[in-house]
Amino acid sequence: MARFKHFKLNTRGRDFAVGDIHGHFQRLEQVLQRAGFDSRVDRLFSVGDLVDRGPQSELALDWLAKPWFHAVQGNHEVLTQQYLAGDPQLDVFDYRISGGGWFLDSPPERQRHYAAALGQLPVALEVETRRGLVGLVHANCPFPSWATLRDYLQGKLAPDPAIDEVFQWSRERLKTKNDAGVQGVRAVIVGHTPLRRPRRLGNVWHIDTAGWSEGYFTLVELATMRFVAG
């Protein structure tokens, strides 16, 4: 799989990012309609966690097949890989109560199908805008510069399991209120940690506002970095 993807400037329409979806694609569709999203020219980028918790996790692959929808790999996508690999660090009971029952109760062939597709998602991606690059990762950027992140995911630096875990699991930036930001990129957009409202630390934007639960989905228009709340 390509662990890093680059997207060229959208010269025809608008680009948006959205927080964790967690199997609530119908809710997301309603937000897109209110935002005037036009799938003929617009694009939507997801910070991952497409599956688990919601009733429509099985639609994740249908959405990934849409030419205008793109996502990075979240920790809930990683859980499908861990389960099929028999990872001893995976607590299956915790996985189920975290919303993974739809996957655990699926036939083995279907599990393999979903895990294979979700395993192909990049760990990070970047999008060209008229005002500079915008990056997306699921939880946190483990490096002070976007160029180092790019080099690491493209295999130019030695792999490190501890670094890999930061991308999809770390809440350290929020816990420490680290506003140092990430150099070499206009903004980095992340999810993973549900918040009552979006929060910015330096140039890192946390946009999981729990649209999959009791909150609402937040869209960010990448060219202007303006929020569209749903």
Oligomer: single chain
Mean pLDDT: 96
* Alpha-beta classification: alpha/beta
Low-confidence stretches: none
Tally of separate domains: 1
CATH superfamily grouping = Metallo-dependent phosphatases
Give the ordered list of helices and strands.
Answer: EEHEHEHHHEEHHHEEEEE
Overall shape: it is globular
Distance between the termini: 33 Å
Describe it for me?
The two termini are 33 Å apart. The chain contains 8 helices and 11 strands. The chain has a single domain (4-229), classed as 4-Layer Sandwich (Purple Acid Phosphatase, chain A, domain 2). 31% of the residues lie in helices and 18% in strands. It has 230 residues and is α/β, with parallel strands linked by helices. The model has no long low-confidence stretch (mean pLDDT 96). Strands 1-5-6-7-9-8 form a 6-stranded mixed sheet, with helices on one face. Strands 4-3-2-10-11 form a 5-stranded mixed sheet, with no helix packed on it. A hairpin with a 2-residue loop joins strand 8 and strand 9 (204-206). The longest helix is centred in the middle third of the chain and has 13 residues, at 92-104. Helix 3 (75-85) crosses helix 4 and helix 3 (75-85) packs across helix 5.
